[in-house]
């Protein structure tokens, strides 16, 4: 028996493995999203930059909804769906079995990266607005745009959390259905 315990302990990943994996995932996703933002903003005006900003705010809210829903959903309906071979049910169960990690990736990694990229996009928008309207460097414009973006992000996430908690089964189901498209 003691040998089996030692073997199992050696097979288990160390307590820092997940943190290291998330670290590298964050670097890769951050680089990809920053590159996408830079390419999108390359010669874009303030309106196009605003659209890029809206996409990043929306992504942050969407992934926050998914992260909360996965931690709140009950797996029982998905067991029933999986028994009936409902598309996406197995993927939904996989999400629920890994709720801690899914929530960490969705809320912390993707959400934080979207927040950072939207912050840099906000700075680009402020500079472009100043140039477009020949405004002198104004702290007031920067504060106003930053406050608006913060309000949209935080308000959107608050609303999203309410949706995620009240409709957690539906949210997880649709994410499972989406993931099912890639598991065919």
Task: List descriptors.
CNNM transmembrane domain-containing protein; membrane; 184 residues; transmembrane helix; mainly alpha; CNNM; 0% strand; 84% helix; 8 helices; elongated
Shape: elongated
What structural class do you assign from the helix and strand content? mainly alpha
Q: Low-confidence parts lasting 5 or more residues at pLDDT below 50?
A: none
> How would you describe the oligomerization state of the chains in this entry?
single chain
Assess the beta-strand content as a share of residues.
under 5%
Q: Give the SSE order as H and E letters.
A: HHHHHHHH
Mean pLDDT: 89
Transmembrane segments: 46-72
Organism: Oscillibacter valericigenes
Domain CNNM transmembrane: 52-183
Keywords: Membrane, Transmembrane, Transmembrane helix
């Amino acid at each position: 028996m003691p040998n089996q315990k030692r073997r199992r302990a050696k097979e288990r990943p160390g307590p820092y493995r997940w943190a290291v994996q998330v670290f590298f995932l964050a670097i890769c996703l951050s680089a990809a999203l920053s590159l996408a933002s830079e390419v999108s903003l390359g010669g874009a005006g303030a309106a196009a930059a605003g659209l890029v900003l809206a996409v990043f705010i929306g992504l942050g809210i969407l992934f926050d909804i998914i992260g909360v829903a996965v931690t709140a959903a009950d797996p029982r309906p998905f067991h029933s769906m999986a028994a009936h071979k409902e598309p996406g049910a197995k993927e939904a169960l996989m999400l629920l079995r890994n709720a801690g990690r899914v929530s960490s990736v969705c809320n912390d990694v993707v959400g934080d990266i979207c927040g950072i990229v939207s912050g840099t996009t906000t700075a680009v928008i402020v500079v472009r607005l100043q140039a477009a309207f020949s405004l002198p460097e104004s702290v007031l414009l920067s504060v106003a745009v930053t406050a608006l973006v913060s309000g949209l992000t935080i308000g959107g996430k608050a609303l999203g959390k309410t949706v995620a908690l009240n409709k957690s089964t539906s949210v997880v189901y649709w994410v499972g259905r989406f993931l099912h498209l890639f598991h065919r």
